[in-house]
Amino acid sequence: MPDIQRIIDTIAEEIAGAPHRGRVADYIPALAKVDPMRFGIAVVAADGRVFTAGEADAAFSIQSISKVFTLTMALGKAGQALWKRVGREPSGSAFNSIVQLEQEHGIPRNPFINAGALVVSDVVLGGGDPRATIGEILRFVRYLADDDAIAIDMDVAGSEARTGFRNVALANYMKAFGNIERRVEDALNVYFNQCALAMSCRQLAMAGRFLAHDGMHPGTGRRVVSALRARRINALMLTCGHYDGSGEFAFRVGIPGKSGVGGGILAIVPGEASIAVWSPGLNERGNSQLGSLALERLSDATGWSVFTARGG
Ligand SMILES: NC(=O)CC[C@H](N)C(=O)O
């Protein structure tokens, strides 16, 4: 086992001095206020040890990382039928793009772009009421992380509900194709609230453990999803988790990862670790600039890229 603590301490030092930090998301007013100097990292190893550096216990807006958890829930509810409504291919387009939807009849390319995640939220909503569904998502994430302190930041949820016109457009457009089954405002309500989940790197890395353990919750020993489903969620994270930056992330880091515009990234090394990093400045694709760099350094130092021979 590499010396994780030493490695992440060195990474935190490098990140603290990095001159180019990217730009904080400003299209969601509540996120525009976050200080780009902040940084945290948490690594939960397969044996349960937790390594942290920087502000690993500071809560931030997980934004699109929530799409991993709602996808897991939607697969539990709809099973394979989900794939009739959402594709499994990288889009090569921005996370909030609408261009492919018209030609592809309202079927989003994958569950991690906004359009796909809105369909997933609609599935999670099922016949239920949005408030109950938001509660269900919160309980699921708390269960995965073994942490009842996780909450939704109402300021962020409200901020996005007031300004999320693109998401409103995407949901309405898909409704026109029959691919949003419930009320558009209900699907959006669920989506905005799941994106506003506030979690620390430690909580996020804990919540991701099941994906590093073939679908098992290592705390309870109970299965969250089958090993096959965990493998597939990881595959989607690798191919689609960074939108039109997924190829670059695979090239540089080589670990399934899901980013959010709050500056967080959840990264899964099957059989080895669940990792969360946070640095609020984003690159031009909307992915955390220094979070990606931190994961690249970690991957280089540990040999954890899924494209590296184990023990290499
Ligand atoms: N990439 C993201 O994190 C986007 C999520 C954000 N809530 C949005 O819909 O725009």
TrEMBL record:
Enzyme class: hydrolase
Binding site for substrate: 64, 114, 160, 167, 191, 243, 261
EC number: 3.5.1.2
Sorted UniProt keywords: Acetylation, Hydrolase
Domain of life where this protein originates: Bacteria
Leader peptide range in chain numbering: none
Reactions that this protein is recorded to catalyse: L-glutamine + H2O = L-glutamate + NH4(+)
InterPro entries to which the protein is assigned, alphabetical: Beta-lactam/transpept-like, Glutaminase
Pfam families: Glutaminase
A molecular function (GO) term: glutaminase activity
Family: Belongs to the glutaminase family.
PANTHER family per record: GLUTAMINASE
Quaternary structure, from the entry: Homotetramer.
Full protein name: Glutaminase
Naturally occurring in which organism (per UniProt): Sphingomonas colocasiae
